[in-house]
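Can anyone check this?
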Amino acid sequence: MSEKTIAGYSVKCNDQGFMEDLNQWNKEIALALAKEESIELTEKHWEVLSYLQEQCKNETAITIRKVGKSGIVTIKEFYQLFPKAPLKTASKIAGTPKPVSCI
């Protein structure tokens, strides 16, 4: 674990850049992480990020299939919102741990 400065905030991250403490997350950090991934966050992105955070708080394992069945987005829309490794990228921006299902 190491400290990383994101959007002017010092946050604890693992060696892959995933935040270790969701309580350190805020919208400025999300915007900075999204920018690193060349993603401009829309309202639909924020809904997905919120869903991922809620699942994390409930300690629910998350998969692409679960996101697709969430009623927020379809799997196709999820891939459109987060084109490169959607679950991994969305989880990183949401400040949640890397999903177990991601390589």
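Reply from J.R.: I decoded it. The helical segments are 27-36, 43-57, 64-68, 75-81, 86-94.
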